[in-house]
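Aim 2 progress update. The chain analyzed this quarter is reproduced below.
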Amino acid sequence: MWILNKVVLIAASILLFNSCCYFQSKGKSAGISRDTTIIRNDYLEIKSKSFGAELISIKSKKNGLQYLWQGDTISWQDHAILQFPIIANVKEDRYIYEGKEYEIMSHGFARISLFSISNQTDTSITYTLKSNEETLAMYPFHFTFNVSYTLIKNKLEVTYFIQNTGNEIMYFSAGYHPGFRCPIYKNEAFEDYILSFEKVETAKTYTFKGNLLTEDMRDVFGNTNQIQLSKSLFELDALVFEGLSSTAVTLMNKNSNIPSVTIEYGNVPYLAIWSSYKESPFVCIEPWFGLPDVEGKVSNLKNKVGIEQLVPNETFNWKCSILFH
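Predicted structure tokens:
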């Protein structure tokens, strides 16, 4: 059964990829290419693509400074992916729902799906993904997923709107996985930067074994409101915090006290911080509604730790504001 499901997952992934490639080649030109759209105001210029509804560039109009990680082949080629309907990984890329096994890729299929543009102005854009034959093969729920990007001066608002359009309770996780250049200026080092939270934090981080969580916890705050960045900090993969008191965090140079990015993520249950253990100069700040699997047996979706649920026609709404200094 596992082998059969693996074939189904691969086939569904190929269908998603091929359909995306087809529509990108057939679609009308928008922005600078067939798949890229630009929104801008007097402060920022944002580029995004329909494939994954992903931001691919965030530049200052004042000085051309690029804030968003541009990807590399060493550690992480993406920029700012949407996580849905799972966060990170499930054990053996599979889960159980109503006695049936389903296979799904890391972070879910939203990041490799072709979204349609449902609304656009000079300073905002909304992308939409609806359940279809390919998604149902990996995730047996009907849904509509809208993500909007809106510019307000030097701030970008990211809004999720997820609706259960089916006739049963829908179980899901959702998250946002943007990467920011760090350092952002020349003659700086990754270790010059800290993450400064609103409040003193005592929460410990989960630890990973492979790509799954363990029950071991470790302290990185040291009863302060700051995390000193270093590549060794991520030797065991991401930091994952539960129940933080703060609702915002700022990435800043500790020597100059100059901030680059502030993320106001609100009352999210989990916040992940990740960078490659290699030398790639970026850091990801990831608000999560859900968790990866804990090491052990394949998870039952209904009982998965951190799982969210929607009754028929109910909606999940979340907004994140990112301030660029």
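The mean pLDDT is 91. Residues 35 and 120 are 14 Å apart (CA to CA). These observations will guide the mutagenesis experiments scheduled for the next reporting period.
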